[in-house]
Amino acid sequence: MMIGMTHDIVPYMTTKVRIDRAGRIVLPKPIRKALDIGPGDLLELENVGERITLRRVRGGVPLAKEEGVLVFRAGQPLAASVTDDLLEQIREERDRQNLAPPNEL
Known about the structure:
Blueprint: E1 2-3, E2 13-14, H1 29-34, E3 43-48, E4 51-56, E5 63-66, E6 69-72, H2 80-99
Antiparallel strand pairs: 1-2, 3-4, 5-6
């Protein structure tokens, strides 16, 4: 497997991994740590010829379920005021969509 990055997070790396009987592989811990990949993260797999590429899917809001609660994982702590403002924006948009007459959507 070849692992290379285009955003300078991790230097280019080549390593070998073994597929188990269930068809699984284990990503080396230094790569998981450097790319902030954890349980439940979604990866996109692409194959071209004999090459396989895995990319972390980083779309929308990075939410993860931890102990039954959705947690925003930004990689660094956020001030409470930032999350409060974001929640307010989300709620206002939701209210606009839910309260708008059907022909205004």
